[in-house]
User: Fold ATP phosphoribosyltransferase from Dongia sedimenti.
Amino acid sequence: MTANEPFILALPKGRILKEAMPLLKRAGIEPEPDFSNEDSRALRFKTSVPEIEIIRVRSFDVATFVAFGAAQLGIAGNDVLLEFDYPEIYAPVDLGIGKCRLSVAEPAEMSEKDDPARWSHIRVATKYPHITQRHFAARGVQAECIKLQGAMELAPTLGLCGRIVDLVSSGATLKANNLVEVETIATVTSRLIVNRAAMKTYPHQIGDWVENFRAAAEAA
Ligand code: PRP
Assistant:
């Protein structure tokens, strides 16, 4: 980007976006009206602040846009940050939104006689193969991961795997699919993320936005 171009703030689609909107407002950023129009196919939006534009992308892609410097700022869960572990991303503010956990779950009937301490090899359906492998390797368990993008909860019942690793919030999706949580791998909240090179190039402007978001999160 050049000095006259706006900063790009990458926001995740879906439920985090709803929680992020009041925070954005407190940080002094109001998206243009088209942003709230569900029929709109636009993905990039102006805001009430000329130096900030917003893009709306999938949660995993927020980290990718910011890591490669295509967006200077973003909102991403620490689940996404742990999965990618991009060195180019700095995550200075826990925004306190998107609270949930990343957990291992299995069919209720299986868990009755199951002891996670005795696992040596497991097959897991997940969007998070790196976190899953790291988590289990640390205690000598080999995790064979099958990558799915969603609807993970179907996989054990249909015989794709024995277990899943996925986000759990209310627990309703697990319950509806007759699964139970057997381990929590990480607690998750959303963070303000910043591209490190952009922070070095524009320390005052980006630093001011980091402080605006910090104040907005603290005011919640
Ligand atoms: C997430 C997650 C679970 C569900 C858990 O999916 O992957 O399926 O929410 O929430 P609960 O514990 O409150 O039921 P989401 O609905 O965000 O859609 P996704 O599968 O597209 O990620």
Notes: The chain has a mean pLDDT of 95.
